Amino acid sequence: MIERRIGFVGAGLMAQALAGGMLRTGMARARDVCASDPSEERRRAFEQALGAHTLADNIQLMSHAEIVFLSVKPQVLPKVVEEIAAHVRPSQLFVSIAPGFTLAWLHQKLGTTRVARVMPNSPTLVGAGASAFCVGSGVERAEAALIEQALSVEGVCIEVPERLMDAVTGLSGSGPAFVYIMIEALSDGGVKMGLPRQMATRLAAQTVLGAAKMVLETGKHPSELKDAVATPGGTTIEGIHALEKAGVRRAFIDAVEAAATKSRKLGEPKK
To answer: Which CATH architecture has domain 6-160?
Structure first.
């Protein structure tokens, strides 16, 4: 259990998912969790879902929390950090979920090396997240382990060097949207060949889920699993040929690269 008071600056869906995972697994108690948000609607949703307390004022939360999750959008983060910086206590640990903003930036703006970055993704909301994190020099190893544990309750979490965080953002942070497009396209293909839309989408989504589970649970390389399905002269290799002609691999690689590059730019100083 995390024997510290936990605060979320921003009570959006990701904050709710992270806090909810901690509460469901007994890592934290509702009485020790608090969130601040200017939106009354978001505060009400957070309270109703988790039974935790909320505030409209970030400064009030700072006086309460010992671990502070900065769970706001990257466009809002600079303003929020500027607001709370004068209220930072040396013992507090700050965990940012905003892409692009570096540990050095957080250190400079908050005046503490007790900072960490995490990159969860949207499937965290259904307990199937793929997350990564890195920590500043002032974060103890026991605290890093707590961050990993807190994120792992809603899926998979790995610690990475900070130089890889933008790549993580491009892959697992933005990746669900790329997969949703793939599911939609597979469903479109099924509809084109005569399947009802609802049936096609259900089959497409379950196919993606099952294929991912095969990779994770067998430990086999995706190419090996692909080859096991693509029998000589069969239907699958015909479909793979069509994908290769369309440049699907290049498109996915380009998508991850573009998202990672955008993540890096988000944290660059604005001129």
So the answer is: 3-Layer(aba) Sandwich (3.40)
